[in-house]
Amino acid sequence: MIIEKLEVGPFASNCYVVGDESSNAGMIIDPGAEAKTILQKVNDFKLEIKRIVLTHGHMDHVGALKEVKEATGAQVAIHVDDADSLQSRDPLSMMFRLSLKAPPPADILLKGGDSVDIGNLRFLVLHTPGHTAGGICLLGEGVVFTGDTLFNFGIGRFDMPGGNGHQLLNNIHTKLMVLPDSTTVYPGHGPATTIGTERNWNPFLREQSP
Ligand SMILES: [Zn+2]
Ligand SMILES: [Zn+2]
Q1: Whether 90 contacts 66, CB under 8 Å
Q2: pTM
């Protein structure tokens, strides 16, 4: 599996270009900004992008969506509970007074338990609301893309519309901390980590431990 991380935009959001080496099928997760950089990476690996998957609808994860969709022709998938955020002014962009190129509407509305197939790769959609109502994690073989749900030594903020701290922690415990320790975590911001590292050292999760 090809996994290329690109740190893009003013919020240093992680965009991931994921590819199946055996078929050249690819997926872009969270095209937050810098469409040219993202598309260059797609070209470097000669990937045919099948899906653009959004971990949630915040503008720092969808800012380059319009350009990336137009360039690749790929269908856009987002959880049904965050689909509206592509149509309305995002609270983050309002907060920081950023102008946003209006993102296109989603083509595919995801629910927890759905899978996203990219060539021979299969990713399971884990619905993990708490940062936003429609936040998801994408679970592949040995890897999980966590968006703004779980970070290395952190968790997503839950003080914005749709946020709920109790729900966020509950989802992290019941849907992510049940994964094997060796699972690599690719978050929406900051460095990659593992489930085991976060289980043992993430201060937000330790506070909840008995
Ligand atoms: Zn976010
Ligand atoms: Zn973010």
Answers
A1: no
A2: 0.94
